[in-house]
Amino acid sequence: MNNTEKLKIKMEFKSLTSDTKIPVLGLGTWSMGGGRVRDTTYDEENIYAIKTAIELGMTHIDTAEMYGDGHAEELVGEVIKDFDREALFITTKVSPENLRYDDVIASAKRSLKRLKTEYIDLYLIHIPNPQIPLQETMKALNFLHKEGLIRFIGVSNFSVKQIKEAQENSQNKIVANQIEYSLLVRNKGNEYINNMESEVIPYCQENDIMVIAYRPLAKGKLTRPGFKILDKLAKKYNKTQAQIAINWLISKKKIITIPKSTRIEHLKENIGALGWRLTSEDMRMLDKEFK
Q1: Is 67 one of the catalytic residues?
Q2: Residue 273 lies in a domain
Q3: Nearest C-alpha neighbor of 157 from the set 214, 105, 84, 226
Q4: Looking at residue 43, which CATH number applies to its domain?
Q5: What distance in Å separates the CA atoms of residue 44 and residue 21, rounded to the nearest whole number?
Q6: 118 pLDDT exceeds 50?
Q7: Which tens digit of pLDDT belongs to each residue from 244-256?
Q8: Is residue 111 in a domain?
Q9: Count of domains for the chain
């Protein structure tokens, strides 16, 4: 790491809407508090990591009711109660099995209780569920927005077709689509979504929908030496491989990211991806090399 501790790096923001900005670098909380099952083993470490991330400027915290069976939200809630709530941007997600009208509303209220907050900044449909009409889900999200329980509505792992259907059934703008995206995950994603670069991202960019990239470091694969072009650019810019990979993402229009880390040195390293930019030539080279 390149003396990130000694640097006072200012957070960068992108416009989510005409009057709301969101940090380009947030914190993901998947596996904090357990995977799909509650696990309190590392609570102290996770709480410290979330607190440190916020203090470093990562005021966008991303979580979900699915994470640790709600325990990740509890951990976030334990931290954010000690911060100015208006200075934070909290995203959480409703699980695919809870997309019926009454279930969405009940899920949101449980999330609010665990988060110890009166409102959720961005509420996402975590994963599409073809067994439940999207129209029914959107009706519930519109109700939550009307009641002031959520500020913004978004989706996750949605194709262009699904985004269009969601928007057609929403009284409010769909402001974000959270997808897996990194130098190593380009047009083929996971079991939920693909065609990210050829279809999904261009559509979002053209329709003012923020792309929130998860797994930006491809589960750690982009943090280690071994990719010739990454190693070359890390040396050129005096940055780490991870910082190059994150900078590549946030340099793109309407894309922000939420790397998950519980290690303080990694949080500080991630912050070191800010305050500078890859040249357009190096961006094109990365686009081509990792295609």
Answers
A1: yes
A2: yes
A3: 214
A4: 3.20.20.100
A5: 30
A6: yes
A7: 999 999 999 999 9
A8: yes
A9: 1
Report field, pTM of the whole predicted structure over 0.85: yes
Query: Can you tell me the distance from the alpha carbon of 197 to that of 211, in angstroms, rounded to the nearest whole number?
Result: 11
Residue 232, domain member (yes or no):
yes
233 is written with which tokens?
Answer: 């650019």
Domain that holds residue 224: 13-289
pLDDT band for position 7 (cuts 50, 70, 90): low
Q: For residue 68, which phi and psi values (nearest 5 degrees)?
A: 60, 30
Q: Which of 67, 181, 203, 214 is catalytic?
A: 67
Strand partners, 213: 179, 257
- For residue 44, being part of any structural domain is answered with yes
pLDDT of residue 190: 87
